[in-house]
């Protein structure tokens, strides 16, 4: 039997968003719509474990695309890890302008991919022997199944639980989220997506972290049809790595 | 999207031989002086290529290899440069002339394949060029000028006609091996060598004059994922050249550029389009020798059946990019991409919203320049809040309501100028446009839309009170002819903001004024009109304690409408007091 990954849908809303284009990162210019990487970050903020991977499948744009231009005081220096030496704003002030989106609302559809235990990255700090009883260790890891993680996510998302506040591109732009159940999806009772079709050019898909010291960006050609963007699979040719 | 559009523009223009777009690796450079040498490498003459008169003398444009990006480092251009690099002269007393000239000389040999012209130039440069020129006894005046201005020079071989050495050697330039990794370029989507630094953008007002960068990561805080400089945004060398050249060309040509507040705005179409030429007249003040040009452009847009656009241009994409300076960087203030038909219909809507009755002598200029200047302090365009112009432009192109600041700024300006000047046409037009658009956007049926001319059935309190004020002022002016300060000087502000305070006083005053009017018939007519206006006010609350901002706007528009109506001369004298139509 072929295993089909379960798909979840979140509706997110925010006052501001900035999905920064890589080329205009200093004077921020946002993409027109949410990037798959930012969408993944929202799902990850609600629930993530090394046992799962989130793959974004579809993005629906619900609100018209509107912009706002702001200019903010930021710093030009990187803080060092040494305790005590902070950054003095008078010496390091940089004014950076930003072209942000406002009043954004999206419906994000993602699949949770279950990674079986052998394929997961090595655990670097395993629980030492003294802390686990032999009975527990015998049972440990035996109940690994995808359903466990599906349930965990559903519980957390419907309660509004998250590890950190989900954000739209930049951490200062928090968003509100709501889990849309399959029943509601089938009934199509939600807000319809935008009646607009556009070619959005090359958009950042995500970064390839195979080599941790040199993350490589991947791009794909985004097409919005009636407010819906179908995101290709990571392995497919459409994603230029 | 922005880079993609610029890249496409470059491709389109480069394919067009008259486009003026330099091929990859080259640029147009103004070079005022040419050093002419003969085939044996001896100095012959200095040619002065400048044209024009006096201050405005500009050298001719030559196609030369693209300039290297320099800040404090020593890097010579290929085949051209200032006299420090090209000849080894030392007009400014620097101590690294030797290195500069050596770099120039080295590039000449290593990057150009063998050619008799190259050898002639090498001979010249190796035999003390400065001494040669100074001892030649000729051209000393020009040489002094070259030295003083440290101008850019290019070489020419005697007898080559009009072509400089750059042209004759252009085919011999060896392509440099780019020492950069192959990554996916985010403009073209293909794997190619990524450039670390992009050429500069020149022509953005108030940016660094040596050129600013649209894409730059010059501080540690801006870098991500341990990538340095422009590896943070992978763009291939040819794409980088294409977009910077396209942007520089757009910024140079006045037909594609407009200054909107502090943002230098460029606009272009994806195909040849006549609309491109008309666009700037919708924003700019017209040239002094042809003041009607702006008006004609607007009129053609408004009156033509198909939104003033050639049917073949309707689906052509049109792009507007607003760039604002930030020290050595350039930030994107706004970006708009749409079809010509969309944009022209939105601009048309904008001008329809602004349409308002005007006196006969008023030309009716509605270009942005005039609108913004009239709401600025001292009517100077520099005093406009910097973001406002960009926001207004964006709202016009997107068809959304104007920024709230526009309404507030206009009302503030009207209040500030109350004694010196009455409400101007442009100010009343802005108020009308702001209020109507806001209502339309919110689909608010509660208030009636403000009309172009006087609307005697509009029952909005603010509007009627404004009309009443104008009438009372006219009564005062007629009763005391030649008066210097009318009720407008003292009561305009309080009448618009707190009617319950001002209007009882004004009513009392007007009774005295009416009594002073000699023409009793006129007095009766005015009184009747005032009664008519007051009858339309709500019976329970004719003079409210405060008016909200939108109603204050209507107050000033009502004032303006009534003023225009009162001053309109009509054929039938009876009608001039009640209704006035726009001439």
Biggest sheet statistics of chain B = 4 strands, mixed
Give the overall shape of chain B, derived from the CA principal axes. elongated
Mean pLDDT of chain A: 88
Number of helices of chain B: 20
* Range of helix content of chain A: 10-25%
Helix content estimate of chain B: 40-55%
Q: What's the shape of chain A?
A: globular
Uncertain segments of chain B of ≥5 residues (pLDDT<50)? 571-583
Beta-strand proportion of chain A: 25-35%
Question: Could you give a quick summary of the protein structure above?
Answer:
The complex is a heterodimer of chains A (241) and B (583). Chain A is α+β, with helices and mostly antiparallel strands and 241 residues long.
Overview of the molecule:
The complex is a heterodimer of chains A (241) and B (583). In chain A, strands 1, 2, 3, 4, 5, 6, 7, 8 and 9 form a 9-stranded mixed beta sheet that branches. Chain A is globular and about 60 Å long. The longest helix of chain A is centred in the middle third of the chain and has 14 residues, at 146-159. Chain A is built from 5 helices and 9 strands. Chain A has 241 residues and is α+β, with helices and mostly antiparallel strands. Helices cover 17% and strands 35% of the residues of chain A. Chain B is an alpha+beta fold and 583 residues long. Chain B is 42% helix and 12% strand. In chain B, the strands form 4 sheets. In chain B, strands 3-2-6-5 form a 4-stranded mixed beta sheet. A 4-stranded antiparallel beta sheet of chain B has the order 9-10-11-12, with helices on both faces. A two-stranded antiparallel sheet of chain B has the order 1-4. In chain B, a hairpin with a 2-residue loop joins strand 9 and strand 10 (263-269). At the A-B interface, strand 4, strand 5, strand 7 and strand 8 of A face helix 1, strand 12 and helix 13 of B.
């Amino acid at each position: 039997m072929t295993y089909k990954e379960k798909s979840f849908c979140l509706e997110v809303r925010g006052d501001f968003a900035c999905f920064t284009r890589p080329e205009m990162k200093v004077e921020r210019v946002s993409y027109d719509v949410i990037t798959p990487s930012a969408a993944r970050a929202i799902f990850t903020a609600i629930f993530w474990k090394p046992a799962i991977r989130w793959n974004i499948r579809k993005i629906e744009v619900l609100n018209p695309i509107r912009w706002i231009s702001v200019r903010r005081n930021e710093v030009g220096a990187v803080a060092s890890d040494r305790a005590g030496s902070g950054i003095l704003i008078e010496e390091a002030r940089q004014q950076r302008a930003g072209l942000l989106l406002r009043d954004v609302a999206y419906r994000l559809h993602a699949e949770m991919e279950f990674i079986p235990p052998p394929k997961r990255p090595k655990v670097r700090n395993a629980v030492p022997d003294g802390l686990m009883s032999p009975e527990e260790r015998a049972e440990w890891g035996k109940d690994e199944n995808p359903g466990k993680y599906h349930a965990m996510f559903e519980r957390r998302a419907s309660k509004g639980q998250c590890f950190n506040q989900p954000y739209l591109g930049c951490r200062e732009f928090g968003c509100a989220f709501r889990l849309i159940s399959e029943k509601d999806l089938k009934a199509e009772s939600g807000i319809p997506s935008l009646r607009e079709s556009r070619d959005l050019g090359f958009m950042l898909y995500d970064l390839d972290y195979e080599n941790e010291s040199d993350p490589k960006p991947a791009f794909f050609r985004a097409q919005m049809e009636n407010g819906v963007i179908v995101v290709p699979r990571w392995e497919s040719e459409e994603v230029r790595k | 999207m922005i880079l993609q559009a610029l890249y496409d523009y470059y491709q389109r223009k480069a394919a067009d031989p008259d486009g003026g777009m330099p091929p990859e690796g080259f640029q147009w450079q103004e070079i005022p002086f040419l050093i002419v040498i003969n085939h044996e490498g001896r100095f012959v003459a200095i040619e002065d290529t400048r044209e024009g008169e006096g201050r405005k003398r500009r050298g001719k444009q030559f196609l030369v290899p693209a300039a290297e990006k320099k800040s404090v480092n020593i890097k010579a251009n290929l085949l051209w440069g200032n006299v420090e690099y090209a000849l080894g002269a030392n007009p400014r007393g620097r101590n690294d002339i030797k290195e500069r000239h050596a770099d120039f000389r080295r590039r000449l040999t290593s990057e150009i394949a063998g050619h008799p012209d190259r050898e002639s130039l090498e001979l010249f440069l190796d035999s003390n060029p400065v001494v040669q020129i100074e001892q030649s006894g000729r051209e000393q005046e020009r040489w002094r000028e070259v030295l003083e201005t440290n101008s850019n020079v290019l070489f020419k071989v005697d007898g080559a006609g009009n072509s400089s050495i750059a042209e004759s050697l252009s085919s011999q330039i060896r392509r440099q091996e780019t020492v950069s990794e192959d990554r996916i370029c985010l403009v073209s989507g293909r794997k190619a060598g990524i450039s670390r630094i992009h050429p500069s953008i020149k022509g953005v007002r108030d940016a660094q004059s040596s050129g600013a960068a649209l894409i730059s990561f010059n501080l540690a805080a801006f870098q991500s994922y341990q990538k340095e400089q422009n590896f943070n945004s992978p763009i291939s060398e040819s794409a980088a050249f294409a977009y910077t050249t396209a942007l520089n060309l757009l910024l140079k040509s006045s037909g594609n550029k407009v200054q909107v507040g502090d943002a230098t705005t460029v606009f272009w179409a994806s195909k040849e389009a006549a609309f491109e030429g008309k666009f700037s007249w919708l924003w700019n003040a017209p040239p002094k020798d042809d003041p009607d040009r702006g008006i004609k452009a607007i009129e053609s847009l408004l009156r033509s059946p198909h939104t003033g656009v050639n049917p073949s241009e309707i689906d052509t994409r049109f792009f507007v990019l607003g760039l604002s300076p930030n020290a050595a960087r350039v930030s994107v203030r706004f970006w708009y991409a749409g079809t010509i038909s969309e944009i022209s219909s939105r601009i048309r809507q904008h001008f329809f919203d602004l349409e308002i009755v005007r006196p006969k002598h008023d030309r009716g200029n509605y270009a942005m320049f005039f609108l913004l200047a009239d709401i600025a302090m001292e009517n100077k365009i520099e005093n406009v809040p910097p973001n406002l112009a960009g926001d207004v432009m964006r709202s016009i192109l997107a068809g959304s309501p104007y920024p709230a600041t526009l309404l507030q700024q206009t009302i503030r300006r009207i209040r500030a100028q109350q004694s010196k000047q009455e409400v101007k046409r442009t100010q009343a037009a802005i108020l009308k446009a702001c209020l109507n658009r806001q209502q339309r956007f919110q689909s608010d049926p509660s208030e009636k839309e403000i009309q172009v001319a006087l609307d005697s059935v509009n029952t909005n309190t603010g509007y009627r009170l404004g009309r009443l004020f104008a009438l009372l002022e006219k009564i005062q002016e007629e009763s005391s002819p030649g008066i210097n300060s009318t009720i407008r000087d003292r009561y305009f502000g309080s009448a618009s903001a707190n009617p319950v305070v001002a209007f009882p006083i004004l009513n009392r005053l007007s009774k005295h004024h009416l009594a002073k009017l000699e023409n009793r018939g006129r007095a009766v007519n005015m009184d009747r009109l005032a009664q008519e206006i007051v009858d339309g006010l709500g019976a329970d609350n004719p003079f409210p304690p405060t008016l909200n901002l939108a109603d204050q706007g209507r107050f000033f528009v009502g004032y303006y409408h009534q003023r225009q109506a009162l001053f309109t001369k009509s054929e039938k004298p009876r009608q001039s007091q009640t209704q006035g139509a726009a001439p």
